[in-house]
Amino acid sequence: MTHHAAPVKAKFWTPGVVVLAFLMAAGAAAIIARFIGGIGYVSNLTTARPWGLWIGVDVASGVALAAGGFTTAFLAHIIGRHYYEPVVRPALLTAMLGYTFVVLGLMVDIGRSWAIWKPMLYWNPTSVLFEVAMCVMFYLNVLYLEFLPIVVERFKGGVNLPGPLAALNGPIDGLLKLADTILPKMMWFFIIAGVVLSCMHQSSLGSLMLIAPTKLHPLWYTPILPLLFLTSAIAVGYPMVVFEATLATKSLKLDSEMKLLTPLTRFTIFLLGLYLALKVGDIVVRGTYVYLLDFTAQTNAFLIEMVFGVIVPWLMLLSPKLRRSRQALFIACTMIVGGVLVNRINVFVVGYRPPISEANYFPAIGEILVTVGLIAALMFVYRFIVTYLPVLNKPEQEVSA
Amino acid sequence: MGLNRRDFFKYMAVAGATVAGSERSAHAWQSRAPSDPYGCLVDLTRCIGCRKCEEACNRVNALPAPDRSFEDLTLLDKKRRPDERAYTVVNRYVSGEIDKRDQLVPTFVKLQCMHCQDPACVSACIAVALTKKENGAVHYDVTKCIGCRYCMVACPFEIPAYEYHDPITPRVMKCTFCYERVESEKKLPGCAEICPVEAITFGRRKDLIKVARQRIKKNPGRYIDHVYGEKEVGGTSWMYLSGVPFEKLGLNALPEKPMPQLAETIQHSLFSYLWSPIVLFGMLGGVMWASKDKSDRAGNGGRSGNGKEGDYKGRML
Amino acid sequence: MTRTGPGVILTITAALAGILFSTPALAANPSPAETAAPEKVVWTAPDQEEAEKRAEEVVPFVEAVMDECRLCRQQRLRDVGLSVKDQSESYFLLNSPIIRKTEDHYGPVRFMHAKHAGVTKDCALCHHYRPLDETASETTRCSACHQEPFNKDHPERLGLKAAYHQQCMGCHQEMDKGPIDCAGCHRKNVPDHKDLIQLAANPEPFEVTSECLRCHKPAGEDMLKSAHWLWKGPSPYTLHHRKEVELGKATIATNNF
Amino acid sequence: MSIISNEARCTSCHAGYGWKDATFDFTDMTKIDCLVCHDTSGTYKKTPTGAGMPDPTVDLVAVAKSVGPTSRKTCGDCHFNGGGGEAVKHSDLSRQLLHPERSCDVHMGGYDFQCSECHRTRNHKIAGRSSSVPVVEGSFSCQNCHTGKPHNGAKLLDHHLNKHCETIDCNTCHAPVYAKCKPTKVFWDWSKAGDKERKPKKDKYGMEDYNWKKGEFIWKESPKPVYAWYGGFMKRVLLGDRLDLSQPEINITEPVGSINDPNSRISPFKIMKGVQPVDADYKHLLVPHLFPRDKEDKTAYWKHRDWQKAFVDGMKAADMKYSGKYEWITTNMYWGVEHEVMPADMALSCVQCHESLKGERTCNRCHQDSRDVDFKTIAHKGTDFSYMASKGRDVSHLVGTTDYIDFKGLGYKGDPIIHGGRFKKLPMGYKAEK
What we know:
The structure holds four protein chains of four kinds. Chain A is built from 14 helices and no strands. Chain A is mainly α. Chain B has helices spanning 5-24, 52-60, 120-124, 150-154, 179-183, 190-194, 205-218, 260-271, 275-297, 307-316, and strands at residues 38-43, 89-98, 104-111, 130-132, 138-140, 161-162, 172-173, 200-204, 238-241. In chain B, strand 4 and strand 5 (138-140) form a beta hairpin. Helix content of chain C is 38%, strand content 5%. Chain C is extended, with a radius of gyration of 25 Å. The chains are: A mainly alpha, B alpha+beta, C mainly alpha, D alpha+beta.
């Protein structure tokens, strides 16, 4: 198998990118408003509902959907399925950007953004959030290190900064060369560390809610919530790759890469099946299926999450014919991605119902703008990076074996 | 093709560790509650709803002036919650019982931080901004806070409030149990000091439980036989006596298990001494080594280019 | 039955308004009072002075009390022949330093002891326990047993402030007589406004009011509805106009001067 | 008369700033005068003719920093001076009460009661009824503290006194004279006003009997009140009410009560007699425009001394008809005597009202075996008018009175001790029956 990642040769300012820019501008306005008027100025967060859209989507879902990074790294590098290497770089980029924007989202959400470093100084080992934060921080660095060779590959020996910055050309090039010699020797460590850190904080994100048994709906509140988060994150890794690769290749008119994606999703049958089994087992063992037909907003959200986010796409993936259809595969993977997204929103927002205040929450327009703006910015940067760095597979006339 | 066997075992291992861990150390979890903390016993049958505690709290904590005067007792009928401008509020509940003058018998309920023995907020806090002090107070140190509001998520009493309208330096706001007054100045909490009828009794928590039990025993008709906060969420420093069932007063039934127990148990059993990450790291390292050997043996698969470059790429991306 | 002697009469008469005798010092200045020196306080009520003095006293703490039921207590008082006639003080100012130490928001309460005794006719209603010490007097002041709140050795002994409030309000409520609101018994002390007022020199009167309203907006709202502001209001005691709410000097009330 | 068209003068006692005329905005909170009631520095004062504006010499910042609870001083600044001078209209309220003698007012005297200790205030609504103005924002009476049976001894005398409380207002006995320390106006003849040449004469109290702006006065010090049945309600003449001019005198305010009404009690009143203008045709009281609105004012009586112009303008301002013809009538106002409660030992004694008891030595007439009771002491101990007279009170004519209350005038057949009470005959009555 050959694969050559290369910068995409396409016009950057397409109409889609312009739309992204507009959404970013709106998001930026909301973020500015948040840093002038306070979180309360742009959000509907209250005493009873301290976490909303930003934590549910920007952070929890962002982390889960960046799982493509470590799952593909595991596949291609740890168990040596080099066949899948072409999807590793885009997945890595997605993960890197995903986590970067998780942190940016956090900076908006936490009240004292400037104090975000304080947990590093004041350790609270009992805090699940502390562990998540530490893992995310380390993992983000790992991701940057993993991504660095791509930058090296592109610029090594060709650093050419404009104007007065040209003086820096030499030193920067030297640094790149240094990185080029050191990084490969250590990369195995970072790859394994990335997987380990991911397993740790993907699961711990689920543990976050274990401290609030009276607030989280019993359909979701289970001692195995961390395991469910971990398995769902692992399960959503490859569908996320499919989702993202399909979108990228479609919009950039690249090779569809179905030769990789179709076999990739066979793992998902097992992984998603495992998640489904755990989930079903959980509601059976704890007897929470009694809530299923309550038809409240919460139980409905659970049904949607399970039926359209897990069961239907799982059944779709079972069919080899559908797996080979680019469209069907995309739909199934999108549903899985959506299912995990809904699951995270359910756990952090919908299923969270403080029993005393009984406060309802729906995100304010400002919150939505921030979230949409961040997602748009993520896509924008993705688009920017694939334009200038060798991330996506070079379109080839001959289909690689 | 199927799934790699080792892959499968790895997941099983993690799953097993989780389950086994939580089973095993359910007993191992240790409460870190102070041994002889102070507490307050709120006797709702005594409270007259004068809102003096709210006023005193506002004064001793230098909180912002309220929109409506503390003498305005009409506010009692709104079901208020403590917020970033009021650490404590009093609400009026009527059960429908009528006294001999055909007046509805009110029950006034003072709300504030319960100062749990094993506080969820303290366990949750990302940066030790919240701590349980030996004197019973759950203490907030703003200099460590990053404003993540996980404490608010965690609190089973939905107490901590937040200065949502401060853009840069918002604080988590909740009853301090007048920590400084009690600890350094040897004074009473502002509310307990001002209370005109001693609806709030301040003292050592264990004495207060005795006092509460005694009151119930002496006057069984007056009280529900339950000291709210004695056992709830593993015990709280603030406790309540009432003549009306607590559920009717916005004091919900809560499990007796301390809130942080499950999460801490899972976290500890998984991550104590970082054993699981280290084991996982080792396993993955082994798998990687084995698979690298295999792919080396396979002669770089179908990859083109020389060995060095292939190696690099294989490791890299 | 009617063995009333002159001395007794005097005592009773004194008790009527809670006043002890003193030489009547009638106002000596019938001429226009503009010239009278206002600082000169000519007369102070002796029982007021005594009450003030008593209020300042802190009596020794009674450690143990005889725990007996209301009926036993009444029986005991009857046995020793004590009744409301035997009270020595008719008027108290409730202004103990024990309370003032932590609390200065309200002025002292004028407690008409004789009045309450006369109405309840039962000492045991308030003097519910006696000191365990046999030599101690049968009834004693509230502040002998009730002093600081939250006494470690007597966790169920109320502090003086709570004892007053529970006793007074509880009984007033039970009997449906007497005030149960704060202002019904004591005037509110106003905190020193020296540092609270933020005004530039030579303000307009309206600016002064705005400054007051900064904190006392509800008071302003109340004031707008008051008769001292509107010079009109409800007239529930004016025949044929009882339902009217607009009568007053500002409207159609009149006079002959 | 009426504040209408004379706002600027009258409203110098208004708790607000700038009520100059009918355009005053009663919804503007910033016009409230907080200081007039809450000053504790004693330096705050209003300009008498300034529509409630403070005197420009007052240091408002210092006053604002001194605010505190109301006091006899702050309340008194207006209520001691109603009607244009001290004790003029409120017979029992004068600056004497700032530091009163015991005999003057026992509450405000040595016990230092402030007004608001009785006139309980809630939400700036001040409890207390007035016989002069109709507005009431809450009731407060002696009974609130002293109960309906205030004589709380267990003796027979207390029983008798408490029985009296069903029929007699506290102040009937406990304030046998009013305006004790400061003469009050009891007569005011507006018709005599306008004579700038007439020189005021000083009466025996040193008070002037004439003022060209206001007319002719009579002052009295320590007069005996008029007693009337009073059940808590007042009858009032309001502006626009048609009067019966054939009556020699008209009561503009008058207590409602009757000997047959169980709620009515014999209560003391000051009667303020006045001679005031009435519309000869429409037969309603007239509102004169007295106080000049400004320098250009063409109609104010106190500038032009022309009643006709003053009535035309005043009645226009009051939005009432004026026929152009006026005449003068005599009117009475009843003012309840509520303050200046004397010490208990100075209340009226039994014999000061019940002459028939004067000769009794024991209680034998009604009670058996009461030899050891010194009835004489009980029955005679009371208000000592000769002592008061010696201290300068104008009460020498009251010494030795035994008919302080005119029972026949109040509807009894005579002394109720002999002829029986309102609803029950007394045992020693000539038509005795239990």
